[in-house]
Protein: Pullulanase
Organism: Bifidobacterium goeldii
Amino acid sequence: MTLAITQPSVTEPFPPCLERQLGAVVSPSGTQFALWAPTACKVTLRLFSHGSEDEPGSRPLVSYPMFREMDGSWVLNFDDNKHGVYYDYLVEFPCGTVNRTADPWATAAGVNGRRSMVVDLARTDPDGWESDQRPATTARDTIVWETHIGDFSNDPHGGFPTEHRGKYLAFTDDNTSVDGLGEHPTGIAYLRALGVTAVQLLPFYDYGSVDESAGPQFNWGYDPVNYNVPEGSYSTNPFDGTVRIRECKKMIQALHKAGIKVIMDVVYNHMFSPDNWFERTVPGYYCRRKANGALANGSACGCDMATERPMFRRFIVESVTYWAREYHIDGFRFDLMGLIDVETMNQVRESLDSLDGGESIIMYGEPWRAAATAVPEGTVLADKEGLSALSNRIGHFCDGTRDAVKGHVFYVKQPGYVNGDAAGHKAKVEQAVNAWRTAPNGGEGVAGQVIQYVSAHDDLTLWDKLCISMTPEGTIGSGIFDAVDERREPMMAAGRIAAGLVLTSAGIPFLLSGEEFARTKYGDEDSYDSGIDINELDWLRSVRLGGLVDYYTALIALRRSDPRWFDAPRRLIDAGGNLVAFVVGEYAVFANPDAEDQQVPLVKVEAIVDAPGAAAWHSVLDSTRYDVARDADTADTADTADTADAVAHAAIDTDADCFVLPAQSFTVWKRA
């Protein structure tokens, strides 16, 4: 539950600055610096030629006193364009304390984000940026593939240029292949072949857990320092504040050229440290505090941000809108959305809608938090209890689907529908495929709000969960994750069923990158800083398990072939036993998690399917036709009733007038 208390820190004893543009703004008339610091008695602007203290000439070039305005901001104007100049502020308070701070509203920074930089953003646009357009795919077409910028290209076998590995620019290499041999695609070419329509990127604003000046390091990046500045470690030169901006735009441009939308993972619920630029500027205002003055920690990261306060709400709305407008971002995933108040989330939605084409920008988040937070009484948070107050065009991750399909996320040995407890989870899976719209508790909203998934960067990968829950030796470190011997087929079959359920359910399907080739992190449930080797995509595995990749590709193609998969009602088939069976239009879908073949009379399907009395049923997807390895048997995925190998694969028994559904199979049939 939300801990609702009156916060003892600064409330609103001064007018918030809701109109003036803050930050360093370049215009034809010059450059304006503006910082909101209403409790300060003096603010000094310092200009530098370099972005850090460790570079030559790190001393200030010049310092200027700033002028206080009635709205609590401090302002200084210059007649010239100061593009490329680095700066910070000295903020003095009546008690005598002086805080050095970078600009919380900065849009560029030096190495490690310690100093801000003035940027004329037009100078950072790559060639052709003015003609870059968001792909025309709608929510109905959206299939999300989540990855980390480093994971995407760190593997030496990925065929990426050495200087691009782990960088924004790896996404601009549009013809990479495993070991550069030209046979098995990687990178952008792989995504085009797979067929996903959106890539969700783990945080790529400037974060604090890696040293940008050092060699390759790894962190997920859920520790923001400068929200409106791209992360420098993903650039080829983190010392020049313009390089990261231009290369980030090139990445987005390349994905758009491939027809793929870019969804940005944003973390406005907490920051790297309570000693952040916001709190240095207005101490006690931006972080939530309990009644005893202690910092609220609903994020489990030490400092919940007070999204309900007018100035931080303004910042969030403008920050998201800035990324959408300046970087052409197509969507936003909100980390721990359950810590952000509903009013702020709805204002973000309204602001995005005001942009040209902004109604197509996707918004969704995690409707939960790690622990209780501290907000003023009456504040409604965007957690599960507050979903009804959110715009119906703000979605949320559905952990109910995740746990019903593969078992509880926090109890690694506990199975779900596909991996050992079909009877205990069948009813929930039947709700899940319909986006929970008929659930007894009122459901999860409209179908477009429901993010359907079974694995993400958090927690065990799908493959690791299946290995641990389905093998007697299922303990971390026991060597069970390699997917190389015959014992792995039960887990592979379970994974195929899980994928089938996600990609045929109503809502927006979401995949962890590499899920389609049984990605493993060797049982690591929280790999946020576990290093490159644990986290990188293993592109050789995509070849070795190419048959599984083909299966996902076929599922994605099926999903994209008909818009009804997005939100048409799922009509359940009374198939009996542990089978989950449903109809969408003229499609019939069957999941059989059991170790034995099952039969379903045609008459049970004919009673509810569209196009009654039409031509014979045809199998358009049969998971049993996809082996782990890629071979000739995967080429023909359409199978009719009288195939010679009907015993091995799904078929129709014309004598018994029934569907024959193989053990541990997922099949889709169409009557046309």
Remarks:
- The domain at 23-124 is CATH 2.60.40.10 (Immunoglobulin-like).
